[in-house]
Design goal:
4 copies of one chain form a homotetramer.
Chain A lengths: L3 E11 L4 H11 L3 E9 L4 E11 L6 H15 L2 E6 L4 E7 L4 H11 L5 E8 L5 H6 L4 E3 L6 H14 L4 E4 L8 H6 L4 E5 L11 H8 L3 E8 L9 E8 L6 H24 L3 E4 L2 E4 L2
Parallel strand pairs in A: 5-6, 5-8, 6-7, 8-9
Antiparallel strand pairs in A: 1-3, 1-4, 2-3, 9-10, 10-11, 12-13
C-alpha cells in the first residue's frame, strides 16, 4: 500500500492571462492530481488561487522539491505563493478571558476530531478556564495583566514564539491587543466580536443592539488589526430576536452564534481557505 | 345569520398591577370574546397591550359606545388607547422613485388579497412606475421635484390630507423627507432602507457593505424621523453573500430582502401590531 | 426587604367566552401581578393559556392556597391546569450514547447558569461520556444493554422514579425506547432527531439527506411517542449545505444544529412554554 | 474598440488525472482568459467542470472553431461537454395555472434586466394571468385541458418545439406532466414545489405541514422527472413559522419563499451552473 502526499497551494498575484493554465500544467507535469481548485479575480486586479492536490508518495516530489521547481512560475507571474503539506496540522493558541463558551466549543470540536489543529496552549488573563482546559489535557497559561503592558506583551510573545504558533485565536479575550502585538500577529490572529460588524463596535455590543432596537443580532470573526474591530471580516452570522429579549438574554442567545462563527473562521483559516484582500477576505469554501 | 363585529384595542400606559384584569373584565362584561391578546412590559416601566376581540353585531356595543364605556378605565390607568374596527381597511399611500421591486411586491400582494389595505394613491418623483400602477387600477401621481422644496411639501401634504391617509410607505423613495414632512407623518410613515441598520446609513449602502467586506447583507424597515435612518426599527432581514459578489449583484440580491421586509412591516403596522417605545418598537406578531 | 413569589399557570380547556377575564380577575383578586401572558385558540376548539405572575411573599397566597381557591374556575371552564412555583427548578435526566455534542452543550449551558434545571443524573448505554459528566460534578450511570430489554427498562424506570424526574432528554441516545417506556414518559421525554422531520426518519438521516441531494439539512426536537420520530415537534432548525459536502461533513455541520435545537426545546419545556395539542405543539416563546 | 467574446464550457467525465490541466492548457493556447472556474469530483467518480472564459473577438476563435479544436480533448477524456456563447440568452417558456406570485416575480426580474433570458411564451391552463403577461409585452397562450391528454401534450410540444425552447419553468403549474412530456423535457424543465422536499410531496403541502406541526416550512425547485416531486433538487429555502399560523397563512408566507427559490434555480440553470448527477445536482454558484 502506498501513502498519499497531500499538498496545498495558495497564492495571490496580479491578474493576467495564463496563470491557471501555467499552474495546472506544472502540477500535472509533476504527477499531481487536483482535488479542489478555487480562483477569484478581484475588481482591483488581484488574482487569488487555492489548489489542493495529491499524489502517491514517491511518485510525486516532496514539498521542498516541488517548491523549488515551482519557483520559475512564481517569478513569471509575480505570485506570492505558499505551498504546504496538508498532513501538517496548524498549531493554534487559544486566548480567553472568563467566559468559556467559545473555548469550550473549539475544544469539544478538537476532542471530537472535527478541527484539524494542534493546541499547544490555552492562554488567559484569568484563571476560570484552567479546569476545563486541563480536563481536556491541554496546557493552561495564566498570564494576568501585570500593570506593565510592555512586559505583558513580551511574556505573551515569548510564549507564542516558543511554541511555533500558526494562529492565535481570541476566543472572547477581553483585552485590546497592543499595536505591537497586532503587528507581530498580522494575518494570523482571529478575534470573535460579539456584534454584527460594522455595527456595534467596542464594548457591550448586545447592550448597544438592545438600545438601538435591532430585530437581528450577530457575531463577526475577523483578523485583528490595530484598528479595533475594523480588521478584514472572515465570517458572520445572525439570529432574529424579538422586542421581549433583555440585553442579558441577547448575550445568551448570541453566545451560540459567536461559537459557531468562530469555529468556522478557524477551520477555514487552518485549511488555507481564507486570503486577505485589503479590508476584505476571499473565502474559498 | 348574524354578522360579527371585530375590534382591536392597542394601548400603552405606565406599568402597574391590575391593568389586564380590568381591561379583560370590561371586555367580557361587554360581551366580547378575546381572539388574540399580547402584552409587554418594558424595563423602563411602560406597559403595552394589543387585544383583538369579536362578538355578534347587536349583542356587542358599536365602536363609539364601547369607547365611551371604556373611558373610565383609560382614565384610571392613564392608558393611551386606540380602539378600531378591524373591518375598516387602512388607507396607505405608497411613494416610490424609479426602482419598482418594493412597489411591485406590495401591489401584487394587494391584488392577491394578501394585504388588507386600500391604496388611494401611488406617488412618485419620477414617471417610471406609472404604467404598472395604472395596470393595477390605481391612481398614479407624478410629483417631480420642482426646485422649491416647501412648495413640493405643500403639494404632497395636500394630497395626503385630502386622501385621509393612515400610512405612507416609502417603497424605495429616494428623497430625504423634510423635517416638516417627518413631523407631520410621525408614527405613520415607514421607510425601507437597503442596508442592515445601524450599519451603512445613507447613500449606496450595498457599495458600503461591499467595501467593508461583510459576509451578510440586510434591509431594514423603520419609522421615518428627522434623524436619517435612525427611526425605530420595525423589521429586518439578512442574506449571506460571498466574496465573489459585486456591488451590483448585492443590489439585486438585496432587492428581494427589501421587498420581503417592507411587506411584513406594512402588514404589521396596519394590523396594529407595532407600537413605538422610544427608539425601539414592540411587534406583537 | 420582601421576597417575591413567582408562579406559573399553564392550562388547556375547551374554547369559550370569558376564560381570560375569569382567570385574570381571579389572579388580580389574589394580589398577583401578571408578568407574561400568552394564549392560543386552536381551530379544533382548544384554548391554551400560559400566565407567569408574581407578588410579594406574604401579600399573595402560597401555591397550595392559590390552587385551592382556583379550583372553582378550573371546574367552571373544565380547565386542565397546572400551577407551579417558578423557584422550583425542573429535574432533568439526560440520556446519551457515545456522541457527546448535545450533552456537552447542555452541560455547558447549565454550568454557565443559562439553563434553569437540576440534573440528578446522566445515563448512558456506553461509558464514553463518564469523564466529562463527572468533571461537571454530575452522577454518571452506565446502563449497558443487558440483552434483556424488560430488565433494562425496569432498571431505568427505577432510576428515574427514584430521582423524582420532571423531564428525560435523549441527547443523541441511540436506542429506541420500548412502548412501555414511551408510555411511562409520555409528555416528559424529549428526543433530538438529527434530520428535518418528517423527512429522513430512522437511521442515518444525514446519509439519507445526502443521497436525496437536499440543499438544506436540519434537526428536530420532539416529544417521544411509540411512533418512532412521529411525536409532536417542539423545535426545528435548518442549515444550507452545498453539493460538495460528504455525508460525514453533513454529520459535523448538523451537530451544531442539533445541540442548538435541543437546548431551546429543553428550555421551553422546563419554562412551561410548550403544550401538546394532538400531533402539534403550542410554543409560547 | 474591440468586442469581447464570452464562452462557457460545462462538462462531465469520468474522474482521472490531467483533465483540468489539459482543458486549461487548451483554452490558454486558444488565447482565452479564464473568468470563472469550478470543478467537483463526486465520490462515485464523476468529474464536473464549468469554465467561463473570454477574449477579444478576432483574437480568439469563434465558437464553432473552438468546439472543433476541442474535440480531441473531449475524446481523450470521454468528456460530455457543452460549449456555449454567453451572449446568447436562454429561451424560457413559463407555465402557470391560476396563482401568479412566481410568474410575477420572474417577469419583474426579467423586466428589471436581472434575469438574462428571453421569454417567447407564457403558457397556462387558465386565463387568469393573461392580463399581466400581456402588460409585460409577452405572448400568452391559453391551453385549457381538453379532456384528451394526448392531444393536449401534442399541442404543448408543438408550441415548445416551434419556439426553440431551452428551458420550461413550471411556475406553479398545477398539472402533473405526462411521462411523455417528462421524457421530452428531461433536464430542461424546472418545477417549484411548495414544500420542503422530500417532506410533503403531492397536493396541499402546506396543509400537510400544518397537520404535522412542523416549525419550519420550505420550498423546493427541482428538475421534473416521471417520479412526481422526486427529481434532482436544484435549490431549497425555508422559513420559520409559529403554531399560531393557519394553513392559509402558511400558503401566503410560503409564496415568498417559492418565488425566491424558483428565481435562483432558473438563473443558475440558464447560467449553466447546474449539472445533474443522478438524483443530485451540482450547483457551481
Amino acid at each position: 500500500m502506498t501513502d498519499t502526499a497531500r499538498y496545498l497551494l495558495t497564492s495571490v498575484c496580479p491578474d493576467r492571462r495564463g496563470i491557471v493554465a501555467a499552474v495546472m500544467g506544472f502540477l500535472h507535469g509533476e504527477g499531481l492530481s487536483i482535488d479542489e481548485a478555487h480562483q477569484h479575480g478581484t475588481p482591483e486586479g488581484q488574482f487569488f488561487l487555492r489548489i489542493a492536490m495529491s499524489g502517491a508518495v514517491g511518485a510525486v516530489p516532496d514539498l521542498a522539491t516541488l517548491a523549488a521547481r515551482f519557483a520559475p512560475i512564481e517569478a513569471e507571474f509575480a505570485l506570492q505563493a505558499e505551498l504546504r503539506d496538508l498532513a501538517r496540522r496548524a498549531r493554534v493558541v487559544i486566548m480567553v478571558s472568563r467566559t468559556g463558551h467559545c473555548l469550550h466549543d473549539l475544544l469539544h470540536r478538537w476532542q471530537a476530531g472535527q478541527l484539524p489543529i494542534d493546541i499547544p496552549a490555552v492562554v488567559s488573563n484569568h484563571d476560570d478556564q484552567r479546569s476545563f482546559t486541563q480536563w481536556c489535557g491541554l496546557p493552561f497559561h495564566h498570564l494576568p495583566a501585570s500593570g506593565d503592558r510592555d512586559a505583558d506583551d513580551d511574556r505573551l510573545l515569548a510564549l507564542i514564539d516558543g511554541l511555533d504558533v500558526d494562529l492565535v485565536v481570541l476566543a472572547r479575550y477581553m483585552q485590546i491587543l497592543s499595536p505591537r502585538l497586532c503587528a507581530r500577529l498580522a494575518g494570523r490572529c482571529i478575534n470573535i466580536h460579539h456584534g454584527f460588524l460594522p455595527s456595534f463596535k467596542g464594548a457591550r455590543p448586545y447592550h448597544q443592539a438592545h438600545a438601538r432596537g435591532v430585530k437581528i443580532i450577530g457575531a463577526t470573526a475577523h483578523y485583528v488589526t490595530t484598528d479595533l474591530d475594523e480588521g478584514p471580516i472572515i465570517e458572520q452570522a445572525t439570529q432574529r430576536v424579538s422586542h421581549s429579549r433583555s440585553p442579558e438574554e441577547l448575550v445568551t442567545i448570541g453566545q451560540e452564534v459567536e461559537a459557531s462563527v468562530l469555529s468556522r473562521a478557524v477551520r477555514w483559516h487552518v485549511e488555507g481557505r481564507v486570503q486577505i484582500a485589503g479590508q476584505r477576505t476571499i473565502v474559498f469554501d
